[in-house]
Amino acid sequence: MSKIETPLDAFLKWEKQTPNQIFLRQPINGKHITYTFQEAGIEARKIASYLGSLNFPKRSHIALLSKNCAHWLISDIAIMMADHVSIPIYPTLNDTGVKQVLTHSESKAIIIGKLDDFESQKGGVPDIHKISIGMYGESEGRLWEDIINTEQPLNEIPVMNLDDLHTIIYTSGTTGNPKGVMHTIRNFSESVKVFGELITLQSHPRFFSYLPLAHVAERMGIGTQGFYKGVEFSFPESLVTFASDLEQCQPSVFLAVPRIWTKFQEKILEKIPQKKLNLLLSIPIINTIIKKKLKQKLGLSKAEFCFSGAAPLASSLIKWYETIGVTIFQVYGMTEDCIISHANTPEFNKIGTVGKSWPSAKIRLSEEGEIRIKNNCMFKGYFKAPEITAEVFDEEGYFKTGDIGEYDHDGFMTITGRVKDQFKTDKGKYISPSPIELEISKNTDIEQICVVGTGIPQPIALITLSELGKAKSREDLSKGLINTISQVNPRLEKHEKIEKVVIMKEDWNVDNGLTTPTLKVKRNSIEKIHQEFYESWFEMEDKVIFE
Question: What is the DSSP string of 469-486?
């Protein structure tokens, strides 16, 4: 085969060299259905052949609505083989969100895969060609299985032009409507190349794909990266089986967001309280056994690299994981820069930072400290939004990330907040909530946190409780939270000191629109609901308020 450049080239290489190697491992009803590279290739060719029979213009937009599964990746390959552009859609979007993306992207067809509740989403799907995967219980339009049984595989695979549009990734929308980020084939190819210089793995490693493939980090760092590495992919069957599925997989690389790392810690501490864990880890031989068992149970016994991204991870949590033998590398990137920005590595790792910039990335900080970036895999603009595209680049062509950061004397970057997250108390002082939230979140009773303060003299912290927190009495909970605030406040400026902690009645999640699909808190949505109560909460006598 000629030079491997595109994701499709990479898949075709493994299909030819290792046709009988397992490529995909899909759990269904507690059992695993496997697909070799050859079997996946045949299915992809048949789906591509069917897409070709629909006579869409070349480079048409084909949407993909599904949770992570074997068919997501086969669909991605099929769309490339059919010479079309993929439009991944978050599987947790409601019907309005689905319709918004399908309409804006001008998608000609949609592949409907593994979903929790398509019935509530189907109203958002306009009258376009539909392919549904019966294995996951869907039956809209043409059945995937019928296509596989009747279509002939596509014989001629088109040569992909590196500068063609490859995909439009819609941002998860922490602020306003999602924007369609356009990436070329070259962008993905370049991102994989740069990332591959960090991750050196044995041939055919195992990956566990569970964060949304509609998000750039999972799509690039796990999905597309996996095509190049000849990976064996596994997926969780459900939330209930997630832990056992991960434990069974024992992946070579594990990527998570802060909420996942917090949940893992919480589950460990439920079984082994911190005092007992400290004691066990202090005994030399027992120490090794405990670490080995915990890593095995977490599914990380073979993980050569553990990464955390999407939002800041508390230094205290990274250090806690170090005590059980798990090293977490914080990384930083965006949909627009194809995740090539900053990373901690085995060679250069500083806890509390997002690492050094990639050699191929050029970084500058604006007067306000906003991080601005240029690299070789920068997006080509927002789909159908040239004005917004123009606004996000400065006069020298650097992308304005909207994140505020600072370098230390060793060249490590610390993210200190978002330009748009800053708010003023009624004292007229600006506050960046992110660093304060990170400090307070070391309290394991806290699941999520949002520091706010518009229109009141001092900021307050809105929180949701972790399972550990929910198990405590109000008295114990209040004592612990007050203790945390009393430790954090002396390190803050006078106008930043937290006055109250308000415990929310309901959790913040994707379903109620208060987190993004990547579990980041939607500050604007939370403020919209609660801002009218800030003043009355502030005036209450108690330091900890139960909503």
Answer: HHTS-HHHHHHHHHHHHH
Regarding whether 439 and 406 lie in a shared domain, the answer is no
- What is the pLDDT, as a whole number, of residue 1? 41
- Residue 96 belongs to what domain range? 10-159+206-234
**Cα gap 16→2, rounded to integer Å:** 12
The pLDDT tens digits of the residues spanning 359-372 come to 999 999 998 889 99
Structural domain count of the chain: 3
Tokens of residue 252, six digits? 């070579």
Taking a C-beta distance cutoff of 8 angstroms, is the pair 163, 190 a contact? Answer: no
Residues 461 and 541 in one domain: yes
Torsion angle defined by CA atoms of residues 318, 320, 324 and 330, in that order, rounded to the nearest 10 degrees:
0
Write the CATH number for 456: 3.30.300.30
Task: Please write the tens of the pLDDT for every residue from 266-313.
Answer: 899 999 999 999 999 999 999 999 999 999 999 999 999 999 988 888
Which tens digit of pLDDT belongs to each residue from 67-105? 999 999 999 999 999 999 999 999 999 899 899 999 999
Q: Could you tell me if 359 and 437 lie in one domain?
A: no
- pTM of the predicted protein model: 0.85
CATH number at residue 216: 3.40.50.12780
374 occurs within a structural domain: yes
Find, among 12, 359, 2, 378, the residue nearest to 184 by Cα.
378
Whether residues 385 and 521 share a domain: the answer is no
Per DSSP, the three-state class of 368 is coil
**308 and 347 inside one domain:** yes
| pLDDT tens digit sequence for 22-49 | 999 999 988 999 999 999 999 999 999 9
Same domain, 370 and 427: no
Smallest Cα–Cα separation from 64: which of 111, 96, 104, 100?
111
Residue 49 pairs in a beta bridge with: none
CA-angle at 445, arms to 442 and 451, nearest 5°:
65
Place of tokens 């998000």: 215
**Are residues 452 and 398 part of one domain?**
no
Least confident of 158-167, 391-400, 417-426: 417-426
> What's the pLDDT band for 495 if we cut at 50, 70, 90?
confident
Angle between the N-to-C axes of helices 37-53 and 7-17, in degrees from 0 to 180, rounded to the nearest 10: 130
Is the Cβ–Cβ distance between 374 and 395 less than 8 Å? no
For CA atoms 28, 148, 220, 181, give the dihedral sign. Answer: negative
Sign of CA dihedral 349, 355, 356, 360: positive
334 and 447, same domain (yes or no): no
Angle (CA) 507-512-517 rounded to 5° is: 90
Compute the distance between CA of residue 522 and CA of residue 174 in angstroms, rounded to an integer: 5
Q: Which helix (H) or strand (E) holds 101?
A: helix 95-105
The enclosing H or E element of 542 equals none
In a domain, residue 4? The reply is no
